[in-house]
DNA sequence: TCCTTAGGTAAACTTTCTTTTACCCACTAT
DNA sequence: ATAGTGGGTAAAAGAAAGTTTACCTAAGGA
């Protein structure tokens, strides 16, 4: 039971959101702080945290914490990745479907 | 106002669903009828129609209608496509964000 | 002391997506 | 006539996302 379709769909789901794409774009090749991201994208604190969590759990974004004058400051950076949806993955899904038919 | 992030996210959203990925997998290099899809994926009629509509509107799936003994039968086939999310598109989104800052 | 800032959580609300139920039409076969 | 099939819609129920409001901790500076 590899659940290819479900797994791949949930990976795509993480990317299928404009706010998250913008966060990844801003943190591309450049570390950004939460404050910076919140200001540029006009996001509330809990909202940024929620989006950032999905991105880091999926491995698209990395986080580094640093203590600046007693306060913890977090820096985000986009990881190198490339997710493609095309014939290749569809063939895997098809195989799985044919297998599950026994 | 190109709205790259929004547009790209909605394209990904169409693919970010296991049922739709399975439909695309089944129709890869092989025409399938609605009946076949419904049976293999255990979908109700309105549900298959809803998923298929999203796929065809986005251009991932094509539909051909044929009249067999007075009844209209529809055949679906997956179009050749490749949607990738990586540095390239993120750079476009970043540019857009920087432009909108004026 | 009190206010501010950085990080965070929990609960509630809203919106969007997925899925089901109940119907409709047209044509075929019994 | 009526039961069955293929395509379809509309409405509503259910589930999952996205977003807000209110609140908590800990440390720094006025």
Description:
With 102 residues, chain A is of the alpha+beta class. The first copy, chain A, has a single domain, classed as Orthogonal Bundle (Arc Repressor Mutant, subunit A), CATH 1.10.10.10. Chain A has five helices and four strands, in the order H-H-E-H-H-E-E-E-H. The radius of gyration of chain A is 17 Å and the shape is elongated. Chains A and B meet through helix 1, helix 2, strand 4 and helix 5 of A and helix 1, helix 2, strand 4 and helix 5 of B. Chain A binds a DNA duplex (30 and 30 nucleotides) through helix 4 and strand 3.
Please render the helix and strand layout as text.
The structure is a homodimer of 102-residue chains.
Chain A: H1 4-15, H2 18-26, E1 32-33, H3 34-41, H4 45-57, E2 61-68, E3 71-78, E4 82-86, H5 87-100
Antiparallel strand pairs in A: 1-3, 2-3
The structure holds a DNA duplex (30 and 30 nucleotides).
Oligomer: homodimer
- DSSP summary: helix tally of chain A: 5
Q: Strand-residue fraction of chain A?
A: 15-25%
The figure for the number of domains of chain A is: 1
What gyration radius of chain A follows from the Cα positions, in whole Å?
A: 17 Å
| Most extensive interface, chain pair and sizes | A-B, 34 and 34 residues
Largest sheet of chain A: 3 strands, antiparallel
